[in-house]
Design brief:
The complex is a heterodimer of chains A (about 475) and B (about 450).
Chain A: H1 3-11, E1 15-25, H2 65-76, E2 80-81, E3 84-85, E4 88-91, E5 101-104, E6 111-120, E7 123-136, E8 140-143, E9 150-153, E10 160-166, H3 173-189, E11 202-211, E12 220-225, H4 228-247, E13 255-260, E14 265-271, E15 281-282, E16 289-290, H5 292-301, H6 306-315, H7 321-329, H8 331-343, H9 347-357, H10 367-378, H11 384-396, H12 402-408, H13 417-430, H14 432-439, H15 445-457, H16 463-474
Parallel strand pairs in A: 12-13
Antiparallel strand pairs in A: 1-10, 1-11, 2-6, 3-16, 4-5, 4-15, 6-7, 7-10, 8-9, 11-12, 13-14
Helix pairs in contact in A: 2-5, 3-4, 6-7, 8-9, 8-10, 10-11, 13-14, 13-15, 13-16, 15-16
Chain B: H1 2-19, E1 22-25, H2 27-42, E2 54-58, H3 85-93, E3 96-101, E4 121-122, E5 125-129, H4 135-142, E6 148-153, H5 159-165, E7 168-171, E8 191-196, H6 199-209, E9 239-243, H7 253-268, E10 272-276, H8 284-299, H9 318-329, H10 332-345, H11 350-374, E11 377-381, H12 397-402, H13 408-413, E12 417-424, E13 428-435, H14 440-455
Helix pairs in contact in B: 1-2, 4-5, 8-10, 8-11
Classes of the chains: A alpha+beta (about 475), B alpha/beta (about 450).
């Protein structure tokens, strides 16, 4: 048996088990424990205040927005929300950690035990969420390439993060990627994260192990993946790497790895670490706060969630799965769609226009304009061709008076048979050779003639109407 | 006018040479503040009850532009980049800040001996300790070098040196005074305290620094009374609790005698005396050394030399930088407490030490609250002994820890506590008055009465 065949024979025996840890950067205006700005891309060490760099004597203050965001996400994932919000200190020494500890949540994570529903090619699936906790980010070590100097940039220190941990019940890289996608959509939908993956707004650590028994194998952690593509690639790479190691009888070592997106392989960051004792204890500078009163208020601010929308679009509006998915994953687009729908109740057509004609660029054109256009199509006031033409004008002049424009330029659909007959006659004289062919039984010519006719009438007639008229004329 | 300040300053520096109270003196800043205050006085623009009062700060407290090292080499050369909230309040009240005072390193100690620089001496006998950790704060006030001073009190570091030096030292309720800009030792126990030779000036300083601060989440937003105008009220009818299960065998004879005199005088003045017991209170020292060291090990983790203070220059190896810097520039007592703190916080011992200590702390609090249903204040000696000789207890840390037996419970619960002198044969003895949460006015009034009664 060749190596490759053996590989595939055993492939089904070893099953991967994956758990994900998301780090979600919140889009709050300020840092978690100081009033310094939570901004990306400032000059190094600009957004600093004594608290952020742990100057002697500084004490944290507490911004409530990140707590609200966490509760919002927790409620959206059906988590149990903790009645108190308490912060703990996690101790370790590293230059990017100015206080010698990170303020995080260990004993009382703000949310526990939720479910994330995600859309995969097997329909809708659920993955259990173990917990969500609020924590501050660390600074950043900046290494210069040639002279081995490391600088610290503390702008990021103290910015608010949510850490979301799934149960290790994911069994394929595909599912993992769908979950990442869903987290990205959901957090933008709730407006708690900007979702710019290239700016590191969401980073994920993936824990993966392979086993052919009921107990889990040795786990490898791939850290800091900041794109859905990299997550998929890294997991696929790691799965096949571990598979071949297991098949050749090698032991898997517990490691922390990084994905190298250029060489497309996982590289060891550190071998199994001595279990660091983080010496967690409740931060005595931050009294715990009671959340119960907030939970009710926040609950009311949560919009219909993407997954609900998706199901509604799919089953009550009868859109296709891809249309439903596209329109439900982005809040502004979804809102746009629903405004149009409330005026012109043709979901299929509107979905088609937003996705295919407008290419999802809905931000500039007021929805009422498009709604009017949709109504005109629906009521056969103008043809699709002319509607498309007007759409292009709207992209330039968003406040164009559509009705006036249609009137002035004579764009409305015509039902004038006499005029149409003359046009058809002209076309037939022009293309008399094709007419001959048609009459000799070459029926394909019909479509060519219809095309010319549509072109000639410049969208003033409905194509269906033209088709009937043309065939009537040819077959008389 | 110029000479007045200069004269004062020269006298001060002469005494300072004997006592070793100051780490740094802000001659220029103080002189400036002095003239500005004089100008205000001449123009009837006095800002507050402390306008023109000469005070100084324990080195735990940040004063912009002045060095701050908390008595530690690891912060040597560090200049405070901002004012602590109490300092900015004092400045805007017109107080004159003379400089920074000596202390035990990171406020860890009860004698002022735990620092690599110098030991503050007790003005009542230069071979004796001034107490600690706010040693310089107490000695400088006792020697009348300054009118008042600020210290920090985590387990008695204000009340004990006040008692040793025969002055008044007051630790208000936890949350009464902002901790922003105070180098943290044990966050849940630290509180700013005030020293002066008399209760009235203590009240004056306190009313100018107390009050809510949005920069400190643990400060409490309740109104600050004008303490200095609430002194001299009658004490008749006040219910005073005397702790019965709390007078250890090693209590000094003389201390006991002076304490009994006070009790007698209270009785003569129709103060209602109630005997009380507080179960678990004997565990206070153990609880304190678990919680304080746990928090200290965390609060002191930031001193790695990378951003400020001293760094041990070594071949580049991150772990070595951390180890060498902290080994070389932190003192023995500080390292002892960091190790102890790390031990009680380690995941293996967390439940048995840290959590258990917290639960005993809650029990002691409940017991105090029960006691305060029956009484308005509780009195006991401030310390079991008088000021001892320099070097006497330096190498017996456990014995030194036990000297805080009367003061530590007050910090664990966060109550206001004052030490006021009640007698002096050779060295002064202090009485501690403990009040209800945020009832500083009651404590100050009784302390004022004790002070006045002694004069008679």
């Amino acid at each position: 048996m060749t190596c490759a065949r053996m590989f595939y024979k055993h492939m089904n025996k070893y099953k991967p088990t994956i758990g994900l840890e998301f780090h979600i950067k919140l889009n709050c205006k300020n840092k978690l424990f100081s009033n310094e700005l939570n901004e990306y891309g400032s000059e190094p060490n600009q957004n600093l205040n004594p608290v952020d760099i742990g100057l002697p004597g500084s004490l944290p203050c507490l911004n409530l927005n990140p707590i609200e965001s966490a509760i919002k996400l927790g409620l959206a994932l059906n988590c149990k929300i903790s009645s108190i919000c308490q912060f703990d200190r996690k101790h370790y020494f590293y230059p990017d950690l100015p206080k010698g500890y990170q303020i995080s949540q260990y004993y009382h994570p703000i949310c526990r035990n939720g479910t994330l529903f995600f859309r995969s090619n097997q329909g809708i699936q659920g993955i259990e969420i173990e917990k969500i906790q609020i924590e501050e980010d660390a600074g950043k070590n900046v290494h210069t390439e040639n002279n081995h100097v490391t600088y610290c940039d503390y702008n990021r220190a103290g910015t608010p993060l949510l850490e979301l941990i799934t149960k290790p019940t994911i069994y394929s890289s595909y599912d993992a990627s769908r979950i990442f996608e869903e987290i990205k959509n959901l957090t933008s939908f709730l407006n708690i994260c900007n979702g710019n993956l290239d700016k590191g707004d969401i980073r994920v650590d993936a824990n993966i192990s392979l086993s052919n028994t009921n107990s889990l194998g040795t786990k490898v952690e791939i850290k800091n993946l900041n794109s859905i593509k990299y997550l998929t690639q890294a997991l696929n790479y790691e799965i096949s790497l571990q598979m071949s190691q297991l098949l050749s009888g090698k032991e898997i070592l517990q490691e922390t790895k990084l994905w190298n997106s250029i060489s497309k392989e996982t590289k060891t960051l550190r071998k199994k670490e001595i279990n660091l004792d983080y010496k967690f204890f409740p931060d005595p500078d931050i009294p715990s706060i009671l959340c119960t009163q907030y939970i009710k208020i926040i609950k009311e601010t949560i919009p219909e969630l993407p997954i609900r929308k998706y199901l509604r679009y799919l089953y009550s509006l009868h859109l296709s799965t891809s249309e439903s998915y596209i329109l439900s994953s982005n809040l502004p687009i979804s809102n746009y769609f629903e405004v149009l729908l409330s005026i012109c109740n043709s979901p299929k057509m509107i979905a088609n226009w937003i996705i295919n004609e407008m290419k999802l660029e809905t931000s500039s054109i007021p929805p009422m304009q498009i709604a009017l256009l949709m109504l005109h199509i629906k009521n056969k006031v103008i043809s699709r061709t002319n509607a498309r033409f007007i759409l292009n004008l709207l992209k330039i002049d968003t406040n164009l008076n559509i009705d006036q424009y249609i009137k002035q330029n004579n764009l409305s659909l015509s039902h004038n048979n006499l005029e149409l007959k003359i046009i058809i006659q002209n076309i037939c004289t022009e293309h008399h050779i094709e007419i001959e062919k048609y009459k000799n039984g070459k029926v394909q010519v019909f479509n060519f003639l219809l095309g010319s006719l549509i072109k000639k009438t410049k969208g003033n007639y409905e194509p269906a109407f033209l088709k009937v008229a043309l065939s009537k004329y040819l077959n008389k | 006018m110029k000479n007045l300040f200069r004269e004062y300053k020269e006298g001060m520096l002469r005494m300072e040479r004997e006592l070793g109270c100051f780490f740094s003196v802000d001659e220029l800043g103080a002189e400036n503040a002095f003239y500005q205050s004089e100008f205000r006085r001449c123009n009837q623009q006095v800002r507050s009850s402390v306008d023109g009062m000469v005070i100084a700060l324990k080195d735990m407290i940040l004063c912009k532009g002045l060095p701050v090292c908390a008595g530690s080499r690891i912060l040597e050369g560090y200049i405070a980049p901002y004012d602590a909230t109490v300092v900015s309040r004092l400045k805007s009240s017109g107080a004159i800040i003379m400089g920074k005072l000596n202390q035990d390193e990171f406020a860890m100690g009860s004698s002022g001996e735990n620092n690599p620089y110098k030991v503050s001496r007790n003005p009542w006998g230069l071979e004796r300790v001034a107490g600690g950790s706010s040693s310089g704060s107490a000695a400088a006030v006792a020697a009348d070098i300054i009118k008042g001073s600020l210290g920090t009190d985590t387990g008695g570091s204000v009340r004990q040196p006040a008692s040793f030096c025969g002055i008044v030292g007051f630790k208000p309720s936890y949350g009464r005074v902002s901790r922003y800009g105070i180098i943290s030792y044990a966050s849940s126990l630290d509180q700013i305290g005030v020293f002066s030779s008399n209760v009235k000036d203590v009240a004056r300083i306190l009313e100018n620094i107390a009050g809510y601060d949005e920069k400190d989440l643990t400060s409490i937003n309740i109104e600050v009374p004008r303490y200095s105008s609430m002194l001299g009220r009658e004490v008749k009818g006040i219910k005073v609790g005397i702790l019965l299960n709390f007078l250890p065998d090693e209590l000094d004879e003389e201390t006991k005698r002076f304490f009994d005199i006070v009790v007698l005088k209270l009785k003569q003045n129709h103060v209602e005396l109630v005997s009380i017991t507080i179960p678990y209170i004997e565990s206070s020292i153990s609880v304190y050394y678990i919680l304080a060291t746990a928090e200290a090990s965390s609060n002191l983790a930031r001193y790695d030399g990378l951003r400020y203070g001293q760094i041990y220059k070594t071949d580049f190896n991150l772990e070595q930088v951390y180890k060498k810097t902290r080994s070389a520039f932190l003192g023995e007592e500080v390292k002892r407490r960091i190790l102890l703190g790390n031990y009680v916080l380690s995941s293996k011992h967390y439940d048995n030490y840290y959590l258990k200590a917290q639960s005993i702390r809650r029990k002691i609090r409940d017991e105090f609250e029960k006691a305060f249903e029956k009484v308005d204040v509780i009195i006991c000696p401030t310390t079991p002994t008088k000021a001892y000789k320099i070097g006497d207890k330096l190498h017996r840390p456990l014995e030194m820890y036990l000297g805080d037996i009367f003061t530590v419970p007050v910090n664990l619960i966060g109550l206001p506590g004052i030490s006021v002198p009640i007698g002096c044969k050779d060295f002064p003895i202090g009485l501690q008055i403990i009040g209800k949460y945020f009832d500083e006015a009651m404590v100050l009034n009784l302390a004022h009465w004790v002070q006045e009664v002694r004069k008679e």
